[in-house]
Sequence to fold (309 residues):
Amino acid sequence: MRNERAAGVIYAAAAYTLWGILPLYWRLVESVSSTEILAHRILWAFVFVAVIITATRQWGDVKRIASDRKQLIFVILSSILISFNWGLYIWAVNSDRIVDSSLGYYINPLFVVVLGVLIFKEKLSFWQGIALGAASLGVVIKTIQYGGVPWISLGLATSFGLYGAMKKFVKTNSMTGLTLETAVVTPAAAAYIIYRQISGQGAFATKGTGVILLLLGAGVVTAVPLLLFAKGAKRIPLSLLGFTQYISPTISLFLGVFVYRENFTAVDIISFGCIWLALVIYSMSQVGLLKRKTVITGNTSQNKIEDAV
Fold:
């Protein structure tokens, strides 16, 4: 049992570490437009997971979900949301906005709590209310600094949170879900790649072998962390899994500040400080270190984490 738990921590930490260093990968192909990178990520992710689905003989589950009209609607919505999330993240990374993107994923767990209250009628505990208040203060400070809404951070948090909520209604595992989601948008992605090639602007026509191989590998870097995460999620409790999810935005933040030298001002420190305080309070309330007046029912947070890609 102890070995299983240790293995689960390793799998989950490895998954979130890989997600955290993704900016390094997207920066290697920054000479390609963000839209085309997204199209390649969708196409080759579908190809990669389709091979896995074939090898593990899971096409029956794929057909079962696809034939259920109600679940198919949620798959389509999930596909649109995750495609938007991927595209915005790639654009942010290659536009020197890694710090903003990391803030988005710090906010996300708290946004999921809000969705749980609004959509699934879950009850908010006293300490979770305090956490949301601290996080909101951080967003307000960031808004004042920008002179406008921090749309990258909120866009990533919102799209990923809603994506997790949609996934709650689809009764399948993460790999089958990813297969269906990428299948929905693969025709559009393939058509865009073909259009770029025909017009002479596509990466396959204008870039070197290294960039082309990295674009082909986009499917692998999308699916491998998901596979590792699935293995980890089965072996460790949600409370422990919840702590590991902060590995990813923390790595991204350090990359943005120390590797790519993005601005991180005193105002950013205060804003992030509010978010970090909120996450500490939220995490402590989840594992019972802070006494709660009410208990959240349901498992919205688990679904959000379990289906992160």
Notes: Confidence is low (pLDDT under 50) at residues 293-309. The chain has one domain: 2-306. The CA atoms of residues 13 and 244 lie 6 Å apart. Residues 2-306 form one domain.
